[in-house]
Design goal:
The structure holds two protein chains of two kinds. Chain A is an all-alpha fold. Chain A has helices spanning 2-11, 16-24, 33-70, 88-95, 97-130, 135-147, 150-160, 167-174, 189-214, 218-226, 232-243, 245-260, 264-269, 281-291, 295-324. By secondary structure, chain B is an alpha+beta fold. Chain B is built from nine helices and 21 strands. The radius of gyration of chain B is 26 Å and the shape is elongated. Classes of the chains: A mainly alpha, B alpha+beta. The structure holds adenosine-5'-triphosphate (ATP) and magnesium ion.
Chain lengths: 327, 379
């Protein structure tokens, strides 16, 4: 054992665990000088990371633990006491019509917004990239919705989609089509919000795709042309699509998480109505927590939300990441 | 039937003229190197032959067919890029197979999974795989077939790029500095492998390189390009011993050719300073005498120069000297055993071999010259 302690740290100084084991073993009477400095180094290392660790604990870990704890209580804001109710909150959720509506609506919203905004953004990005000029212009045009305040833009949408005086319905009337009450009918409201979501997300995704496209080496397109790819279509599938893999993955994850977090358009335009038809997850959390002050229940829903987001992250890192990075 | 023929190709990018009237013909099965300093338009010319770039004016013929208006995919040429341009997401097998897939399978048949179910696809896929295996065999990369390009060394990637080029037996090969990313030793071995491959495949090849020793050793003919013009096309020997332009003479050869200000007297005798060099020319006036380092040596009489330093290279000795009258630098390549006979600071008389001396006018154009006996010159 002593010999291990002697040569271990010297020949491979990074093997601190070895040295530690050796030091704890009774066969070693006093830690060697080298081992002492090693322990000193580790101490300094911990000291240096301390601020980051403290900040992480205070800002992320503690709130998270608080939410985790709250989720298993019936705590209400202002109440003097609370009881541990185990999985009671989660059991309540199963029977909660507004919660199940919000889950359903959020899923529909995501499945609507993500594919459309990704597909449209990719199409636009490829077109803009292929165009000879005006790249900066188009990029700015489509990015505007991202930088504009959703709450402010919601007013514009409210006007555009107004059932009687809105331009959208005026147009539909002109061509003789039906004029739905976009934000007021439970059949249409989630689709209308979805369109607004697409409008918001396309610009963001577009910029990401444009960056991804710029990173593809021009020579691959030259090579594909010489290899016999005549149409833009075959070049797209031979070069663009696979080379965009990492970008695509990132865009999917970002769009999914962004649309799961939809809140501001719903809150300003429909308040979850009519009849819960546009109730979404984040608004339910907000409503339970800050409207009804049921902190425990709100925390439980937050936990569900976190699990969904974490699940998406896991899919990214475990399943897909490996298949889109080549080497 | 000729391989590649270029008629007066001009190319401008906006206001910059990159190619200023290039005409060139590469015979069927010929290996032609294109050399020239950086930025002279070599890559541009290759891209024009390949169909990746449109000409501003002029015409390109490949195998007797005017392809000026055709796309790259329809020209039946293969190109090896400087950094190989392999598809990083495809395996070696798939990379080599791409040109065959694109040509032999329809768009529908190329769709993953579904395409394979269409009638006849399995059979086509089999022939593609067989051809790919053949090409890989020829290049000795059979064991790497299932790796991705990122898992290959530079030399192996280079072979895959070559495989992708030869697999479909194109009419012409274009290679744009294919060895420049390899280390020196690998470059020399790959050089001879490419030559052997060319013999086996037998397609017309245009090979761009910075490296004149590559051009000289590999090619049937060398084209020297400068400032968007081809200055001279000829066999390596022709280019070296008989350059038609001073810039060609200066570009080819290492160490580069010596240039001495000379004068053609009215009687046609050429002198460097006061010294007659035994060369006669027609016309008279100032001229430039160019002489390769191995064709000038110390002699009893000649151009007086002081030795500045010498480099011992093992197989030869390079003596750097400065002409006393004009201050021009001259390099002589001498047999190594002369090392003891010349010393730094010493003054020697250098005599260019009149049979090897090249004469150029003030614009760098080659002048006709003939050997005079020195007695005549002293006349
Ligand atoms: N797409 C382009 N737009 C504008 N100028 C270009 C373009 N491509 C090349 N050029 C210019 O044309 C000239 C010739 O370029 P080219 O790439 O053909 O040189 P080269 O001989 O291949 O040089 P090197 O040996 O360094 O590869 C250069 O001055 C370059 O700046
Ligand atoms: Mg080049």
């Amino acid at each position: 054992m002593a010999t291990v302690a002697d040569w271990g740290p010297a020949s491979c100084p990074w093997k601190t665990p070895m040295a530690d084991v050796a030091m704890q073993s009774p066969a070693v009477k006093a830690p060697t000088a080298r081992a002492r400095t090693l322990r000193g180094d580790a101490g300094i290392a911990w000291l240096l990371t301390l601020p980051a660790i403290l900040a992480y604990c205070a800002m992320i870990l503690l709130p998270l633990l608080a939410v985790l704890a709250l989720a298993f209580t019936d705590y209400e804001f202002g109440a003097r006491s609370f009881r541990w109710i185990g999985f009671g909150n989660f059991a309540d959720m199963l029977g909660d019509r507004s919660f199940s509506a919000s889950i359903r609506n959020t899923v529909i919203y995501c499945l609507f917004v993500a594919p459309l905004s990704i597909g449209i953004a990719l199409g636009l990005a490829v077109l803009i990239e292929a165009g000879a000029r005006g790249r900066a212009f188009w990029r700015a045009v489509f990015f505007l919705p991202v930088v504009s305040l959703t709450v402010a833009m919601a007013t514009a949408w409210q006007y555009l989609l107004h059932p009687s005086i809105g331009p959208v319905n005026a147009l539909l009337r002109m061509v003789g089509a039906g004029t739905p009450n976009w934000l007021g009918s439970s059949d249409w409201v989630i689709v209308s919000l979805g369109f607004i979501g697409v409008w918001e997300n396309v610009g963001f995704n577009l910029v990401l795709f444009l960056a991804g496209l710029t990173a593809i080496p021009r020579e691959l397109y030259a090579a594909s042309e010489i290899d016999g790819a005549r149409s833009g279509w075959s070049k797209f599938w031979l070069v663009t699509w696979p080379m965009l893999g990492p970008t695509m993955l990132f865009v999917i994850i970002i769009t999914m998480t962004r649309s799961i977090r939809v809140f501001d358009t719903v809150q300003t335009l429909t308040q979850g109505g009519p009849n819960n038809a546009s109730e979404v997850l984040l608004r339910t959390i907000y409503q339970e927590g800050f409207h009804y002050f049921r902190f425990g229940y709100s925390a439980a829903i937050t936990l569900v939300f976190l699990v969904i987001v974490l699940g998406l992250m896991l899919i990214q890192t475990r399943l897909i990441d490996r298949r889109v990075h080549y080497g | 039937m000729s391989g590649i023929v270029l008629h007066d190709i001009q190319k401008s990018f906006g206001a910059t003229k990159v190619l200023r009237g290039v005409s060139l013909s590469v015979a069927q099965g010929e290996f032609l190197s294109l050399v020239g300093p950086s930025g002279c338009g070599k890559t541009t010319l290759m891209r024009i032959i390949a169909g990746l770039e449109a000409v501003s004016s002029g015409a390109v013929q490949i195998a007797g067919r005017d392809v000026t208006a055709l796309r790259a995919a329809d020209r039946d040429v293969a190109m090896v890029f400087q950094n190989y341009a392999l598809y990083p997401h495809l395996t070696v097998r798939q990379n080599i197979g791409v040109p065959l897939m694109m040509r032999r399978l329809s768009a529908a048949e190329r769709i993953p999974f579904i395409g394979g179910l269409l009638p006849g696809v399995a059979e086509k896929q089999r022939t593609i795989n067989a051809d790919v295996a053949n090409a890989a065999e020829m290049l000795g990369i059979g064991k790497l077939m299932d790796r991705k390009p990122a898992q290959l060394s530079g030399g192996q990637r280079q072979r895959v790029a070559l495989g992708r080029a030869i697999v479909r037996h194109p009419m012409a090969f274009l290679m744009d500095e294919p060895l420049s990313n390899l280390d020196a030793a690998l470059r020399v071995t790959t050089r001879s492998e490419i030559v052997a491959l060319h013999r086996r495949v037998g397609a017309s090849t245009v090979y761009v390189t910075h490296d004149q020793s590559e051009a000289m050793t590999m090619s049937d003919r060398v084209a020297v390009m400068m400032d968007g013009l081809i200055l001279q096309v000829g066999t390596p020997e022709d280019i070296y011993t008989n350059p038609q332009d001073l810039r060609v003479a200066a570009f080819i050869g290492s160490p580069s050719i010596n240039m001495l200000a000379a004068e053609v007297a009215p009687d046609g005798h050429v002198t460097v300073g006061p010294v007659p060099v035994g060369v006669g020319a027609s016309g008279h006036g100032p001229a430039i005498l160019a002489i390769r380092p191995e064709d000038i040596a110390p002699h009893a009489t000649g151009i007086a120069a002081r030795i500045e330093h010498q480099e011992y290279l093992g197989e030869s000795l390079l003596v750097h000297a400065r002409v006393l009258d004009s201050g021009e630098q001259v390099i002589c390549r001498l047999p190594p055993e002369k090392r003891r006979q010349v010393a730094r600071g010493e003054t020697v008389h250098l005599r260019p071999d009149p049979a090897k001396a090249l004469l150029f006018d003030g614009d760098g154009r080659r002048l006709g010259s003939r050997v005079l006996s020195l007695e005549d010159a002293h006349g």
